[in-house]
Amino acid sequence: MPEDIYGEYVHEIREGQRKNSCDDRDDAVGLQSTASATTDSTTLARDRDDESDTPTPAVQNINSVIIGASNCRRLDIPNDSKVVNDSISGATFNNIEANITTAKMSLGENDVDKIIISLGTNDITKHRTDGDSVTINIMHALDKVKDPFPGKQIGLCSVIPRKGKSPSIQAINATAVTVNSFMAKLCVLDKSRTLSYIDTVNAFIRKGVPICGQYDSSEASGMHISVDGAHKLWSIMEDFIMAPHTTVNPWSTPKTSRKRVLSSETPPGRQTSK
User: Fold this and answer.
1) d(Cα 169, Cα 164) in Å, to the nearest integer?
2) CB 69 within 8 A of CB 89
3) Do the beta carbons of residue 233 and residue 222 sit within 8 Å?
4) Cys-Cys crosslink for 164: which of 83, 117, 169, 259, Cβ 3.0 to 4.6 Å?
5) From the CB of residue 30, how many other CB atoms can be counted at a distance below 10 Å?
6) C-alpha pair distances (Å), 36 with each of 31, 32, 39, 155, 254
7) What angle do helix axes 28-35 and 38-50 make, rounded to 10 degrees?
8) Is 128 helix (H, G, I), strand (E, B) or coil?
9) How many Cα atoms sit within 13 Å of 138 on the Cβ side?
């Protein structure tokens, strides 16, 4: 994969390539299920990463926009999904203006109902153990999104953990836990009732360990997801997009699916009667 897509983090990623390996406890069946598609899947992922970061041409009847970084560029979104993916490789909360600009160009005259923000990996890679700087950037980023999209439902995705055992990656993942906790609380306490927390972490870990099959095996940085991982991520985002305005009550677990969306619709500690 060309180094220019990693930007200023190329040296840190190379460190991960030297040190990272799959945990022995990862599900061997999951790894086997992705092995047969390794060549095609990694090629597709590379192709999406190598695409220029130009806005999607304006189309009609759009109802949602995805603002993300390189992992979101790997999403295989159906053409008829009415979703614009304006993700940019290397994007951060701190430079979210670039995503907003491309989103506005893609939308043209279209209005949207929902905006998904899936950022934070690059912010944490830069700040490492300084979670406070990341949370400040999140607050500023939300203000910047709300300005051109007032009153719209915003889904704030958790930061997917990195795969690896090195001290550097473990420190980054510890910061991700702190940042994710902050985002979850922020959404629950949001007085505007427009923020929802989208839990993506549980799809990528099992018993606290990253699932190797969900990560790109062609590069060992532990940062990028595989095609299987991209399918899982899109499935979670689609749940949010398809949900009604009143999002899933986080304290009432549906029998058919894992709790994925936290919102300010229900105060902490209160459960919906069954």
Assistant:
1) 6
2) yes
3) no
4) 169
5) 15
6) 10, 7, 8, 34, 34
7) 70
8) coil
9) 32
Q: Is domain 3-263 in CATH 3.40.50.1110, yes or no?
A: yes
Q: Amino acid letter at 60? A: Q
CA end-to-end span of the chain: 51
Report which secondary-structure segment, H or E, holds 174. Answer: helix 167-189
Tokens of 266: 């229900």
Tell me the pLDDT of the chain (274 aa) as tens digits.
444 444 444 444 444 444 444 443 433 333 333 333 333 344 344 444 454 455 544 445 678 999 999 999 999 999 888 999 999 999 999 999 999 999 999 888 888 999 999 999 999 999 999 999 999 999 999 999 999 999 999 999 999 999 999 999 999 999 999 999 999 999 999 999 999 999 999 999 999 899 999 999 998 789 999 999 999 999 999 999 999 864 443 433 333 344 456 555 444 444 344 4
Token digits for 119? 């950022």
Q: Is 199 within 8 Å of 259 (Cβ atoms)?
A: yes
CA distance 201 to 206: 10
Taking the C-alpha atoms of residue 217 and residue 202, their distance in angstroms, rounded to an integer, is 20
Are the beta carbons of 160 and 121 closer than 8 angstroms? yes
Is the torsion defined by CA of 244, 249, 252, 256 positive or negative? positive
Q: Note the pTM of the prediction, 2 decimals.
A: 0.73
Pairing state between β 83-85 and 64-68: parallel
